[in-house]
Amino acid sequence: MTCISQLPIGVFDSGVGGLTVLNALREALPNENLLYLGDTARVPYGTKSSASVTRYADQAVRALRERKVKFVVIACNTASAVAVEPLACQYPEMPIVGVVGPGADASCGVSQTGRIGVIATESTVNNQAYQSAILQRRPDATIQALACSLFVALAEEGWHEGELVEQIVSRCLQPIREGKDAGIDTLVLGCTHFPVLKRAISKVMGEHVHLVDSAETTALVVKRLLRDHALANSSAIQGKVSFLVTDGPERFVRVARNFFRETIESGAVELIDIQHFQKI
């Protein structure tokens, strides 16, 4: 019988962006087994309603639970914004963590002035999850939130650096750099795609603006919770990583090269259908 601590951590995202969270988990928890589920059939989530995203997230968690995971990380910012709390209530026996809370914690911790910017997808910005989470932790904060959905396409196409990318990033970030509330000292990368554009964003914003990558802070939260719940894998052997997708495994492997630091073999990606995992 497999010891519960040796079971994998389930990582769920709407597509490939959550691989940046997977990178952070691999670095912080190299001996943990990881099972990544990308809902590539229904990506992007950023333009979907909250009800649809919550339903999709529930189906993903049910699929991961069937695979016997010990912990679930919602790597998608949009799903984290609307689904973490209801899912945590629905599955109290399993720790479920999203990326919004850790990102908010980190931004409040590093900002000296309380002037914080958030860039994310349209859905995440409109839901105001980051704004609410930051204000809960730091009521004196002044927050500027900006939808930068074009960054998702840049990241997936491998356009990460260079003069043209910097021009596009500069144009998209203009409202947050030059608006009436300009002067932020911290910028939250509120979409899992955005860390691959970190260099271009940093160059445009300037060295005085601290960039918060919620993937890194989420990995540290997961590490602490594994210890607190006695779920940490004590094995000294490097953990295995497995992949599930709901559509287009070949495209997933191709696009994943822009996000994941390890090579993914096409045979290592399993195609599954999660839409039959309906809430009873």
UniProtKB/TrEMBL annotation:
It is an enzyme of class 5 (isomerase). Keywords: Cell shape, Cell wall biogenesis/degradation, Isomerase, Peptidoglycan synthesis. The keyword Nucleotide-binding does not apply. SUPFAM superfamilies: Aspartate/glutamate racemase. PANTHER family: GLUTAMATE RACEMASE. Belongs to the aspartate/glutamate racemases family. Provides the (R)-glutamate required for cell wall biosynthesis. This is Glutamate racemase. It comes from Pontibacterium sinense. The lineage of its organism: Bacteria, Pseudomonadati, Pseudomonadota, Gammaproteobacteria, Oceanospirillales. The gene is murI.
